[in-house]
Structure formats: C-alpha cells, structure tokens
Amino acid sequence: MPDALCAANVHDCEKEATMSKQENKKITILYERLSVEDDREAESNSILYQRELLEDYAERNGFKPYVHISDDGFTGTRWQRQGWQELMSRLEAGDVANVLVKDSTRIGRDYLRVGLFRELLFEKNVRLICVNDGYDSIHGEDEFAGFRDIIAEMYARDTSKKIKSSFNTKARKGVPLSGKPPYGYKKDPADITKWIVDEYAANIVRRMFRLVIAGKSPLQICAILHDEQIEIPSYYLTKNGFVHYSVGLEAKNPYAWSERTVCRILGKEEYLGHVVNFRSSKPNFKSKRQIFHPKDEWLIFENVHEPIVTQEEWDLVQKLTKTKRRQDKHGDINPLTGLVFCAECCAKMYHSQRRDSKKSSDSYECSTYNLGQKKFDKDSCTTHFIATDSLLEILLDVIRKTAGFVQKDEGEFIRIVRENANLKQGETLKTHTRTIDKNERRIAELDKLFNSIYEDKVRGVITEERFASMSSNYEREESALKEENAALQAEIDAFSEDNQRADNFISLVRRYTRFEELTTPMINEFIDKVIVHEAEWSEATATQRRKGTRRQQVDVYLKYIGTFDVPDTRSPEEIEAQRIAEEKLEKRRTYNREYQRRKRAEPQPLEPVIKIAG
Q1: pTM exceeds 0.70 for this model
Q2: Domain, as residue range, for 17
Q3: DSSP β-ladder status, 340-342 and 527-532
Q4: Is 70 exceeded by the pLDDT of residue 295?
Q5: Residue 612 CB partners (closer than 8 Å, separation 6+)
Q6: pLDDT number for residue 329
Q7: 455 membership: H or E segment, kind and range
Q8: In terms of domains, do 408 and 505 share one?
Q9: Is residue 437 located within the same domain as residue 501?
Q10: Domain tally for the chain?
Q11: Cβ-based burial of 451 (10 A; exposed 0-12, middle 13-18, buried ≥19)
Q12: What is the distance between the alpha carbons of residues 253 and 366, in angstroms, rounded to a whole number?
C-alpha cells in the first residue's frame, strides 16, 4: 500500500511539472485599441501611450514573454476587428496565460460582450489585468466591473448621438455624408468636404453611359471593360489613395467588373453634380446593418460639384436600364424594345425573330393579340403586324427628313414647333382649366358634406357605422379628384417647357453629321415612341380582308418635339407628278394581281404518261 501511494505521488509530481512547462510556454498579450473619437479626446489614449504603459507594467511584474496586438482606428462597438480576431484565435488555441489592457473600455463598449469575454477568460483560466482600473482577475471578481462596462457603453451611445447630430446638421447644409466620393470623383485637397472630377475614372463613367445608349447591357459592359483591362473601382481607388478599402488590393482579378457595380454607377445622381444624403442609415450605434430609405426621404442638393454626364444622358440611361432586354441566340439585343406600341390597345409590340436555313423572319405584332391568340381570348385586339426592316426604314426616313429640315432652316423649325405647341396648349388649357375648376367646386362641396354628417353623428342623428361608411366614400372621392387635378396641372405646367424643346432637338441634331444609316444610339437618342396602326387593304371585302395593296400608318414620336410633319417644299408640278406615278404603280399592281388570279383559275394540263414496253 505505501508503495502504491509513493507511485501516485510521483505521478502527480510529474503531471504538475508537465503543466508548469506548458504554462511557461504560454504568452502574455498586451492589447491596445484606439478609435477616431478616442484619438480626438486626449493623447493618453494613443496607441503609443498604451504600448508604453502595458510594456512597463509587464516588465515590472514579470509577464514574459509578451506580444502586442493592436486595433488602430476601430470603435469599441465593433467586434470584427483584425487584432481582436487574432486575440480570440490565440485564446481558443490555448496559447495565452494573461491579457493586459489599459482599461476595460479598450476591450469594448458593449457591456454584454465585455461580460461574456470576462467569462471566457475565467473558463480558460486566463488572467485579465486592466491597469488603470486597478483590476486583476487573480484577486476574484470586482463588484464595480459591470458598472464600469455599462458606463463605457453609455459613453459610446452618447458619443454616437453627438456624431449623428453633427452629421445631420452637415447633411442639411448640402455637405456629402459619405466619406468616400463615388468612382469618378476625388476629395478636393483644399476642402475635403467637396469633390472634384478625377478625369481618368470620369471618362470610364461617361463611356459606360455611352455604351448603354449604344444598346449594350450591363453584362456586356462588364465584358468590354474586362477586355480593355480597366480596373474595378475598389482596386483603382485604393491603389491611388483616393479611398481605402480593406480588401481593395486583394482582388484576384482587378479587372473583373460585376453587373451590380455597373448598375450602381449608372444609377447615381451624383454624376449630375448633385449631393444625395440620407440614402441609408443604421438602426443604432451597435449595428452595421444598413436601412435603405425611399427616394422621397432623400435630401438632394443640385449642382454642388462639376457634373460628369448631362441630364439628358442620365434620363435616357435610366429609361433604358429599366426596360428589360433579352438577347437572342446570337447575342444581339433588339434596339426597339420598349419603344413600339399598338395604336388600339396601347400594349407593347411583341418582337418575333426567326433565323434558320429554310425560313427567316423578323417582325413585330401586338402583344395582346399574341398572348390572346395563344392562351386567352381569341378575339383580343388584332395582329398589327409590321416587318422590322420596314419599321427601321420608316424611322430612318423620319429622322433623316426632320434632321435635314433642321439643318436647312433652324429658324423655321423653331417657329413651327412653337406654333404647334401653342395650338395644342390653347385647346388643352381650356379643357384642363374647366375640369380643374369643376373638381375644386366638388372638393369644397365634399368638405361641407363631411362637416354636416359629423354634426349629425355628434347629435345622434346617424349611427357610428353609417358615419364611417359615408365619410370613407367622401374621402375616397376627394382623394381621386385631388390626384386628377395634380395630373392636369402638371400637363399645364409642362407647356412652359415647349420653347426649350425645339432648342434641345436642334442640339441633338448637331451632334450628328450623317444620317445615312440607322444606329442604336440614333434610335435611343431620337425616338421617344412608335405607334403602329392596323394595316388597311385597298381591295378588302367582307370575306377577304387581306386583298389588294397593303398600307399601314406608323406614328413616330421624336424626343422633345413628338410627331413632326416636315413641310412639303415641292412645287405643285412635282406633287402632281408624284401622284400620277403612284396611280400608275397601283394600276400595275392591280393588273398583276388580276393576272395571277386568272392564272391560278385556269385548269392545269395533264402530264403525258409514257409507257415503256417490257
């Protein structure tokens, strides 16, 4: 028995010796943290001061070996700090014997997280020392530690409120809230609250807008920028020191643009020279989650800095990017998507394309008819069929004739546009003004009726349910009338812009020198919409609707000026000659059709049968 006890004691001594050697291999971590707000407060919070303080304490008390782990520029309410993550990794690995900090606020300013950290150290038998707090976990729990942690969080909360109030004040004065200017701008060295144009990046932004106008999709733009070795914004901005992104230079492929990045750039109103504040916010000072606000809650300050694109380019790109465009199997995108409409039901025209060795076709037809015939109502609208080649030819002809007239006589063009606008304005003003006055009288009458039924409810003449039903109907009617008045007034107000529209169209024409070929940019910049009517046949009957010569009306609405009839400058003799030529052509077509009908009606001769003797 004594031999057994002796063996047990020897075993315990060996175990204690092994544990002592393991403890000697563990290290002491001297952790320092500094946030921007702490740095403003006093020099005693600087990283250098914290290092010197902790090193002196470790040397005097024999905490060796020790290593420094620092987080410079990180607030105590954030826990995704690089140094903090390293400290936690070493704790999990069991390599730490002691943790020294200047005070508990250096750990963090969230009393719940700090409390959990203390519990973790207790479970792992790691000693925590807060030098300036006079706290050492080897002496047991400190009753005031929790209070200090709560006060530290209250300090962070108060600081957050002050900073938020300061930001709100600046934002309402038109100072950009974002510390990172968007791609294409950089901070003005003379005033960091202002942005100046970065010409290299600004040219890339302008090119993106032009590519959209040229019919390219965001995905195609990404491919073009990648092939041209254009660096992505985060990489470019970090490399040039304009903005610091933590992973900006770690991209495996610095030319791999994403559709999301391109779309975000194309949608930024900052490129118009505006400052946009309050796009998003955070729920509280602890959270990193962003809450995005609706546009009516934004604060937009116009013409604060130099624009990169024009208002016309930006508006056009927003319209194009909001229109869904599908690629065909050859990778082509139809440039007329979203521009062609049915004259009867106002639905978009459906583009049908077929390319194969046997039969090729490319045309448009009413989408209501297309869906109805295949799925729903057999009598829904009519086809409104038009070949794409014919439609493109019409568009080019309209653009060429209108632009030619502008180039020939700008003054006469302006006079005609303004005259048409004035005629339209006069007719519309009378109708809209009468309607608005009528609606205003009805609104005033509804207010009186509401007051009357309210008094009846108070006196007990009508029940609560009856009052609720009647008041609801009155409110609905009044709301509808106010919306109608607002829309009518907006149309009236729009007439004041008509004088500028002619000048805008002239500026558009001046950007082009040749109109021989219809290009995608030309379609996007000149065409507002196209209305296609059902075709008419010259010899149509009740039984044969498609008979004779086919004629189809197509209304082309140009940007700024709508439909425009170019004045016919031909002489009476030229007009008469054109009329005679068209009559002769129609007679020739009629004769050919009759000839073909007679030919088809004639009996076909039988083929001779040849017998071969066996």
Answers
A1: no
A2: 13-162
A3: parallel
A4: yes
A5: none
A6: 60
A7: helix 410-459
A8: yes
A9: yes
A10: 4
A11: exposed
A12: 45
Last residue of a domain, one of 111, 129, 162: 162
Question: Do the Cβ atoms of 305 and 262 come closer than 8 Å?
Answer: no
In this structure, are 51 and 157 located in the same domain?
A: yes
CATH number at residue 48: 3.40.50.1390
- Kindly state the helix (H) or strand (E) to which residue 364 belongs, with its residue range: strand 361-366
Residue where a domain terminates, one of 162, 195, 219: 162
Q: Looking at the structure, do residues 448 and 420 belong to the same domain, yes or no? A: yes
User: Are both 413 and 557 inside the same structural domain?
Assistant: yes
- Are 486 and 524 in the same domain? yes
Distance CA 172, CA 304 (A): 13
What is residue 185's predicted lDDT score, i.e. its pLDDT? 92
Q: Report residue 54 as tokens.
A: 């902790």
Could you check whether the bond before residue 65 is cis, i.e. omega within 30 degrees of 0? yes
Q: How far apart are CA 330 and CA 327, in angstroms?
A: 8
Phi, psi angle pair for 311, to nearest 5°: -60, -40
Based on the domain organization, do 108 and 215 belong to the same domain?
Answer: no
Report how far Cα 301 is from the mean position of its chain's Cα atoms: 19
Residue 245 maps to which CATH number? Answer: 3.90.1750
261 part of a folded domain: yes
pLDDT score at 423: 55
Cβ-count burial 322-336 (b if 16+ within 10 Å, e if not): eeeeeeeeeeeebbb
Extract long-range pairs of 533-538: CB within 8 Å, 24+ residues apart.
533/343, 533/344, 533/384, 534/343, 534/344, 534/382, 534/383, 534/384, 535/384, 535/385, 535/386, 538/586
Are residues 474 and 498 located together in one domain of the fold? yes
**Domain annotation covers residue 192:** yes
Q: How many CB atoms lie within 10 A of CB 266?
A: 21
276 has pLDDT over 90: no
Name residue, tokens 């700024």: 560
Mean pLDDT on 563-585 = 81
Number of Cβ within 10 Å of residue 89's Cβ equals 10
| Helix runs in 42-100, H state only | 47-61, 82-93
Within 8 A by CB and 6+ apart from 79, the residues are 108, 110, 113
More confident residue, 494 or 595: 595
- According to DSSP, residue 565 is labeled -
In 3D, which of 113, 101, 42, 47 has the Cα closest to residue 74? 47
Largest CA distance in the chain: 139
The span from the CA of 391 to the CA of 531, in Å, is 11
User: Which of residues 345 and 140 earns the better pLDDT score?
Assistant: 345
Least confident of 90-99, 534-543, 561-570: 534-543
* Cα–Cα dist 369/383, whole Å: 6
